[in-house]
Design a protein that fits this description.
The complex is a heterodimer of chains A (about 200) and B (about 475). Chain A is α/β, with parallel strands linked by helices and about 200 residues long. Helix content of chain A is about 35%, strand content about 15%. A 5-stranded antiparallel beta sheet of chain B has the order 3-2-1-15-16, with helices on one face. The chains are: A alpha/beta (about 200), B alpha+beta (about 475).
Chain lengths: ~200, ~475
């Protein structure tokens, strides 16, 4: 970080100044689409919705209402959207971005509760469902449009997938740290950014 | 050799949504096959206590793949609850949105899930036998497929003002008219889309011709069939009466949506969370009272298709079994494409209708609710029932949903069993054998993983389990 930047950061001790710092660095960032996905009606399956809105607040953007995806007002340096499911036509949107960060819940016991990992284009066979994982979406983009944005996924361990609104305490506790992880990814282009 | 069990299991975060278990006998031959759905569908209970007019929004979140189907079926049920009849322009606009859904959903299924088997072969390397392999083999075709899906999706977006989960229908109509600009832009691409669908039909027919023996014997079995028809027996996707024909093509019943419980029963098996709907007047009798829905079911019940190019294909389709119902499950792919052609042609008709730009798009409900409504449409995968009761304040007290994939539950189970018996040999197990079992289920385009999602891979796991429960082998891809 340059000395001038350090000084600016030290002075940025209010929420407004923090936003100003973000705006300052925004011009240095790769254009990024953050895609949260899940089902708000299935408890922790919808954790990405809360992360996306937390992120949008940090970016000075309006939070999404529950029936909005954010797809209708793209155009910022960092856009953050929330979908029920990844679908193939998203590749038409991804063309415009240098980096894609997926946000989802996970149930893997062998990864940390808050997990961040790169996503590479990869076809994952699906026996008889329409499930489309992030790597598949990137593989389609690469195959059809020869574009390969950097991909990451930030995921939170889900504990409750019942038919209800709201998060389990354990998942809720990780919304803010997940937001920080995404901001970290936005701030440090070109490095190994999953910590 | 001991009896053992194979499981084809896409593992998901909620303990797997569906799997196929193939039980082998002592000689390693297939004894029995089960198609299990492990996902409990709790949307009905979740909806209780909510205002009825929220149902078009709530229920479309059941599914990220076909939200429009639930949106429209819910809207029709809400019309019933409110006791209101939407004006003609509103019905046309709802149907136009539905055509967008049919185009995008059928297009996605054919190119994403069916074409890899058809273009690359059942035994092709699974690393290649997928949509990426299609792109490598025929990039122009792949781009056309994406274009077709985009087109259908944009019809939905232009009407609903959103790409996903539109806010379009209201009890008694729709929330916004169609602009002349949107009409003209949708119409401008009709020729291109027609050409794409015709190319896909040509591809499918070519493949069928080259593989006629396989097609004729692959998951071919008699059943009843169900689908919506208009007053002249023509194909209907949005409205009409529900017709049921038997395996010989004889009419079993034709009834109004509101009377569906007199004709549709639901059977429960202990090994699956998904119920098995059946033709109620016959009682539960596996094979005799069970039926198929979706593209094959629809084309097996209708007398005609009301658009010229699709009807021309339909006439060819009817010749396959001499005018009787077409039984082999692989014909679902052909039927699906005929319907896609219908949807494109019907879109053109709707756009040309003099009422399509009308502002008369909503009738306001009377103050007193009826408290009950049933909405039925032909979703891409088949007949979809939404049935609501409310209290006097319009709060939901009971919901019954019978989804298309549920209607085809017995058919998928049967298809998997027939194909397993025909192709799986436990002594010389190959990936291609298991792919054929999956392909039998893919014919029905089931929608199983829609209400939740999974981070990471959704591997296909094949587990060999001995009669004593010991795991003999496990294959994951």
């Amino acid at each position: 970080m340059r000395e001038l930047d350090r000084t600016f950061c030290k002075q940025a001790n209010s929420a407004v100044r923090l936003l100003a710092v973000y705006r300052y660095y925004e011009g240095l960032m790769p254009r990024t689409l953050v895609i949260g996905y899940g089902n708000l009606d299935r408890a922790d399956d919808g954790v990405a919705y809360y992360v996306i809105n937390s992120l949008r607040r940090r970016l000075g953007q309006e939070p999404l209402l529950e029936y909005n995806t954010g797809l209708e007002d793209l155009g910022a340096q960092t856009d953050a959207i929330f979908l029920t499911q990844l679908v193939p036509e998203l590749i038409d949107t991804l063309i415009d971005y240098d980096q894609v960060i997926f946000v989802d819940a996970h149930v893997c016991e062998d990864v940390p509760d808050l997990h961040c990992t790169p996503v590479l284009p990869a076809y994952v066979p699906s026996a008889f469902t329409h499930h489309m994982p992030p790597g598949m979406l990137l593989a389609l983009l690469q195959a059809l449009h020869d574009r390969e944005p950097a991909g990451y996924i930030v995921s939170i361990h889900g504990h409750d997938f019942d038919f209800r609104r709201g998060l389990s305490p354990a998942a809720e506790m990780l919304v803010a740290p997940a937001t920080e992880s995404i901001l970290q990814l936005l701030r440090q282009p070109g490095e190994d950014r999953c910590h | 050799m001991v009896a053992r069990k194979l499981t084809i299991e896409p593992v998901t975060r909620i303990e797997g949504h569906a799997r196929v278990t193939i039980h082998l006998d002592d000689e390693g031959k297939v004894d029995q096959t089960f198609f299990h759905v492990d996902e409990f569908r709790g949307a009905e209970k979740f909806s209780e206590g909510r205002p009825y007019w929220e149902m078009p929004q709530i229920t479309q979140r059941i599914c990220g793949i076909c939200p429009v189907s639930h949106h429209l079926a819910a809207a029709k049920a809400c019309d019933g609850v409110a006791g209101v009849e939407p004006p003609r322009p509103a019905k046309l606009l709802r149907e136009l949105m539905h055509m967008g859904q049919i185009i995008q959903s059928h297009g996605m299924h054919f190119f994403h899930l069916a074409a890899p088997d058809l273009v690359l072969g059942f035994d092709a390397d699974p690393a290649k036998r997928n949509v990426i392999g299609i792109i490598e083999a025929n990039p122009a075709l792949a781009l056309k497929a994406v274009n077709l899906r985009r087109y259908g999706q944009q019809i939905i977006e232009r009407l609903g003002k959103k790409r996903v989960h539109p806010f379009f229908t209201v009890p008694g109509g729709v929330s916004a008219p169609l602009s002349s600009k949107d009409r003209d832009e949708i119409a401008a691409e009709l020729g291109t889309m027609t050409a794409i669908v015709k190319e896909a039909i040509s591809l499918a027919k070519g493949w069928i011709g080259d593989n006629q023996a396989l097609v004729d014997n692959f998951a071919s079995f008699p059943s009843n069939y169900m689908g919506l028809v208009d007053e002249e027996g023509g194909l209907q996707m949005y409205d009409g009466e529900i017709r049921v024909r038997d395996s010989e093509g004889e009419l079993l019943a034709q009834f109004k949506a509101a009377d569906y419980l007199d004709y549709v029963g639901e059977h429960v098996e202990p090994w699956s969370f998904l119920k098995f709907p059946f033709y109620r007047p016959m009682g539960w009798a596996e094979g005799a009272s069970t039926y198929r829905v979706g593209p094959l079911g629809r084309l097996n019940v209708v007398d005609k298709i009301n658009t010229p190019m699709a009807n021309e294909e339909f006439e060819l389709f009817k010749q396959i079994n001499g005018g009787k119902p077409v039984e082999p499950s692989l014909y679902y792919h052909y039927a699906r494409l005929i319907e896609t052609l219908y949807a494109v042609e019907r879109t053109a008709e709707l756009l040309d209708d003099s009422d399509i730009l009308s502002n008369d798009i909503r009738a306001y409900p009377p103050l007193k609710l009826t408290g009950h409504g049933v909405g039925v449409i032909e979703a891409p995968r088949g007949t979809l029932y939404h049935d609501y009761d409310t209290d006097e304040n319009g709060l939901i007290t009971r919901v019954n949903l019978i989804v298309a994939t549920g209607n085809n539950n017995w058919a998928m189970h049967t298809s998997a069993g027939l194909v397993a018996k025909a192709f799986v040999d436990g002594n010389k197990l190959t990936e291609g054998m298991l792919n054929r079992v999956e392909a039998a289920i893919r014919c029905y385009d089931p929608c199983l993983s829609c209400s939740t999602h999974a981070f990471g891979q959704m591997p296909l796991e094949v587990t060999l389990v001995a009669a004593d429960g010991a795991v003999l082998d496990r294959i994951t891809r």
